């Protein structure tokens, strides 16, 4: 099952875009399919099963989120995939291979596992924690060492600084990153994450979510992610499984479809209010038009700045610092009022977004900065362009229109499906739960 | 003859007794530690087994040491055997109890993580649970040692080794001019040994408790 599935994401997910390039060059294992077949978990002494006859197919390279109210059995369902909880009946297949009866220890070494509050072992250093699974699978020392560095790099921590630290010397967010690094260390095709960002503050959580999205774009693992936060689900997931009690699947679809077309009251109740606003979370700055904007740099001579202001045809200029990072918005007349001193003129740039940021982040930044636009920056914070209010409004309108159209089509399909089912049931071939 | 004069004349005997005392306690501690930790490991996951182990070992501790040794003499004879057996039995309680408490105190999410990343039961125990439970276990060993230092003195009653001989000799010859000196020398010797052992444990703690969980 460690075999990589050659044509990883056949799904029409965002992953397909970079699948050919990214996966090949690093030589890492991409995702494998996960099939759950009639999985049931019955605890002795309780009449109703905790997980009741769940069947689910997760495509290779896909990020699938289990979301639902707490106590709904989503963690139980997740833990059945690596058999931390043994199913009472049903089959589990990973990458086409039936793993229901294989040695659970072997199975788990091929399935990455990251949990809430990181689960790092406090008596081991960061490097020792990450090296655990490769060590158990018998990698050579030098290979493990190189891998630890690589993993720390991957999750955005400087190996030289963090290698020798103990978990308690890290912030919550850093611990969580190391937790993900440990889960990915032996390059498993599948990664299970059980509310991994549940215990960190909202700002850090936001960062970690962005990081995970970036990671997944590079790695194309099959990720199964449990959360009770629907906003987190739509942000990260390619597809979302909304679970109601006893892990019954209420809806399994793309975030867009669930937002615009929740199947029943349970799902729409869970989606919550403000679906249109949430829709903004599903589109990233890279998907909308980033326009160029007249800029000047702090060490440009004043005359150049005046000329630019005159020629630009806009009321404002974006002033960049020496490393080309957005620094200030300069308005016409600002320089005059500040008597020609760049240090005093203009208003500071409060917030910038990267191309990975969601439109919601962008909108927020536009609303906070009274410039009516937000600067888009690259990896090192350098200026790349701007997104303005108008672009945002237009994209949202387009998105919502497209969604509505899709929802109508979807409705038709569903109705046809239902018609077929009723037809079958009338013929006496109804499902077991009829 | 004052106390210091007595020490200087009898120092060879005293040193030999002190060495034997320390050696007996040390060896019994090693055996008690091994047995105690094994009992802890075997029983900690079951509520009743753990309670049974703690209750049994604490019952042993309630038996007066003199009585215990007295009871052992007809079975195993005089000398070293009753000393070793009784010291080991007395040493068990703190170690068993702290092992169970320590192992049960390991954060369940860490055990979940350990299993989840593919550790076998043995690996989980050796690499995660025991290292994390080690500080309380070491405390148990420390308490045990202090206790055995005192109890070992009673061993002389069964012709066992150690500084207890000095004390018993003194008690037997009460009224003679060296009686008090003998009792005092034995007692002070035991106190000094106990302090030395305790210092050693502090050092062992520094060396064996990983920096990540040191308080």
Automatic annotation (TrEMBL), chain B:
Alphabetized CDD domains for the sequence: TM_PBP2
According to the record, the segments passing through the membrane are 24-44, 65-93, 183-204
Q: Name one GO cellular component term.
A: plasma membrane
Question: Which Pfam families would you find in this protein's record?
Answer: BPD_transp_1
- How does the UniProt record describe the way this protein sits in the membrane? Multi-pass membrane protein
| Keyword list, A-Z | Membrane, Transmembrane, Transmembrane helix, Transport
Query: What subcellular locations does the record give?
Result: Cell membrane; Membrane
Q: GO:BP terms for this protein? A: glycine betaine transport; transmembrane transport
* Domain of life per record: Bacteria
Keyword Transferase (UniProt): no
Q: Which residues form the ABC transmembrane type-1 domain?
A: 18-201
Give the family this protein belongs to, as stated in its UniProt record.
Belongs to the binding-protein-dependent transport system permease family.
Write the protein's name.
Answer: ABC transporter permease
The organism of origin for this protein: Streptomyces sp. NBC_00119
């Amino acid at each position: 099952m460690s075999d990589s599935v050659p044509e990883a994401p056949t799904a029409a997910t965002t992953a397909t875009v970079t699948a050919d390039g990214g996966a090949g060059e690093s030589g890492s294992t991409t995702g494998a399919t996960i099939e759950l077949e009639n999985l049931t978990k019955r605890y002795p002494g309780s009449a109703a099963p905790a997980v009741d006859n769940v069947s689910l197919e997760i495509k290779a390279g896909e990020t699938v989120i289990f979301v639902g109210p707490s106590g709904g059995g989503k963690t139980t369902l997740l833990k059945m995939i690596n058999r931390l909880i043994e199913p009472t009946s049903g089959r589990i297949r990973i990458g086409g291979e039936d793993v229901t009866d294989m040695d659970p220890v072997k199975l788990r070494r091929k399935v990455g596992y990251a949990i809430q509050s990181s689960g790092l072992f406090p008596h081991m250093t960061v490097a020792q924690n990450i090296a655990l699974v490769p060590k158990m699978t018998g990698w050579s020392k030098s290979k493990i060492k190189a891998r630890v560095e690589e993993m720390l790099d991957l999750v955005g921590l400087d190996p030289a600084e963090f290698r020798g630290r103990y978990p308690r010397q890290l912030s919550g967010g850093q611990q969580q990153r190391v937790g993900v690094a440990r889960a990915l260390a032996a390059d498993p095709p599948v990664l299970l994450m059980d509310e991994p960002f549940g215990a960190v503050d909202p700002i850090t959580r936001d960062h970690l979510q962005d990081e995970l999205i970036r990671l997944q774009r590079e790695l194309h693992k099959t990720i199964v992610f449990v959360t009770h936060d629907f906003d987190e689900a739509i942000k990260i997931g390619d597809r979302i499984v909304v679970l109601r009690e006893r892990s019954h699947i209420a809806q399994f679809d793309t975030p867009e479809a669930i937002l615009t077309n929740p199947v029943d009251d349970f799902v729409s109740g869970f989606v919550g209010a403000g679906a249109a606003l949430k829709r903004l979370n599903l589109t990233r700055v890279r998907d909308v038009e980033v326009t160029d904007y007249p800029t000047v740099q702090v060490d440009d001579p004043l005359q150049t700045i005046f000329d630019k202001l005159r020629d630009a045809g806009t009321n404002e200029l974006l002033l960049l610092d020496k490393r080309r990072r957005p620094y200030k918005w300069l308005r016409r007349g600002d320089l005059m009022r500040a008597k020609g001193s760049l240090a005093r003129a203009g208003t500071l740039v409060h917030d910038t977004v990267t191309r990975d940021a969601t439109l919601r982040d962008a909108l927020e930044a536009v609303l906070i900065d009274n410039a009516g636009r937000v600067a888009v920056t690259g990896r090192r914070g350098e200026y790349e362009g701007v997104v303005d209010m108008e672009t945002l409004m237009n994209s949202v309108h387009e998105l919502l229109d497209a969604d509505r159209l899709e929802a109508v089509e979807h409705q038709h399909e569903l109705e046809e499906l239902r018609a077929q089912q009723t037809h079958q049931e009338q013929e006496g071939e109804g499902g077991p739960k009829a | 003859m004052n106390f210091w004069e007595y020490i200087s004349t009898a120092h060879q005997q005293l040193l030999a007794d002190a060495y034997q005392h320390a050696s007996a306690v040390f060896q019994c501690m090693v055996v008690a530690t091994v047995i105690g930790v094994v009992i802890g490991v075997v029983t900690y996951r079951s509520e009743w087994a753990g309670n049974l182990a703690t209750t049994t070992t604490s019952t042993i501790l309630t038996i007066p040491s003199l009585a215990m040794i007295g009871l052992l003499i007809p079975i195993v004879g005089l000398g070293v055997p009753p000393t070793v057996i009784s010291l080991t039995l007395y040493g068990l309680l703190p170690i068993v109890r702290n092992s169970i408490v320590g192992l049960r105190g390991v954060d369940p999410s860490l055990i979940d993580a350990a299993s989840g990343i593919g550790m076998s039961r043995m690996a989980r125990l050796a690499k995660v649970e025991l290292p994390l439970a080690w500080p309380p276990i070491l405390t148990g060993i420390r308490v045990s040692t202090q206790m055995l230092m005192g109890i070992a003195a009673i061993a002389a009653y069964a012709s066992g080794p150690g500084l207890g001989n000095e004390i018993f000799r003194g008690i037997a010859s009460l009224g003679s001019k060296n009686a008090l000196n003998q009792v005092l020398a034995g007692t002070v010797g035991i106190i000094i040994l106990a302090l030395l052992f305790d210092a050693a444990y502090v050092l062992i703690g520094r060396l064996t408790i990983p920096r990540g969980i040191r308080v």
